[in-house]
Specification:
With about 200 residues, the chain is of the alpha/beta class. It has a single domain, classed as Ribonuclease Z/Hydroxyacylglutathione hydrolase-like (Metallo-beta-lactamase, Chain A, 4-Layer Sandwich), CATH 3.60.15. It is built from 6 helices and 11 strands. The strands form 2 sheets. It has a 6-stranded mixed beta sheet. The longest helix has 22 residues. The relative contact order is 0.13.
Length: about 200
């Protein structure tokens, strides 16, 4: 399997992914942005594109879906994924991990040791929940990603920071609310500090 990460610009430094399996069989993840750049990669690698996947329904991730549909490239829909989250394209096993939060339909694709995360998780930070998302869902989804192997390579939907990063490192960079335990620890330190200041004054 070969992963091509294509900088297609689009709305804001978007990535389209071209995944190539045996016998020049390939598929696209988030076909969007600059069509010429994608077509050049397809031509250069002599790939026969059979399917396209999207990570969520925001327009900056699927601008070119209709174009490729017209070329006979089948889109795997959200409903199909719901019914059949694990499937194969080009003899490559793909596992859908549903990660609502950035949007209700956000999902990541786990392919071997690679996670294609769309706008759920970037190499530094997460996608906003302001456009059809939900903070609590996002927190649950990040906790779900925490259960995966930290060494998995994260391939995000936008170039925000780095092109890719190990999942464990990316998750560490997500700003999380401190736990109850940590809040108590901070409180304890503040009280200690106040006491210390008092003794200095006396
Ligand atoms: Zn988005």
């Amino acid at each position: 399997m070969n992963i091509l990460q294509i900088m297609v610009n689009g709305f804001d430094k978007n990535f389209t992914y071209l995944i190539i399996g045996k016998n020049n069989c390939g598929f696209l993840i988030d076909p969007t942005g600059d069509l010429k750049t994608i077509e050049n990669e397809i031509k250069k690698n002599n790939v026969n594109i059979t399917y396209q996947l999207v990570t969520h329904a925001h327009p900056d991730h699927n601008e070119l879906v209709d174009y490729f549909k017209e070329k006979g490239v089948k889109l795997v829909t959200f409903n199909e994924l719901k019914n059949n989250p694990e499937f194969e394209i080009c003899e490559i096993k793909i596992k859908t991990i549903f990660t609502p939060g950035h949007t209700k339909d956000s999902r990541c694709y786990l392919i071997e040791n690679n996670l294609f995360s769309g706008d759920t998780l970037f190499t530094s930070g997460v996608g906003t929940t302001a456009y059809g998302g939900d903070d609590k869902d996002l927190e649950d989804s990040l906790n779900l990603l925490e259960t995966l192997d930290k060494k998995i390579m994260l391939w995000p939907g936008h170039l925000y920071g780095k092109e890719k990063r190990e999942l464990g490192e990316a998750l560490m960079r997500v700003h999380k609310k401190p736990s109850e335990e940590m809040l108590n620890e901070i409180k304890r330190k503040v009280i200690e500090y106040e006491k210390f200041i008092k003794t200095k004054k006396n």
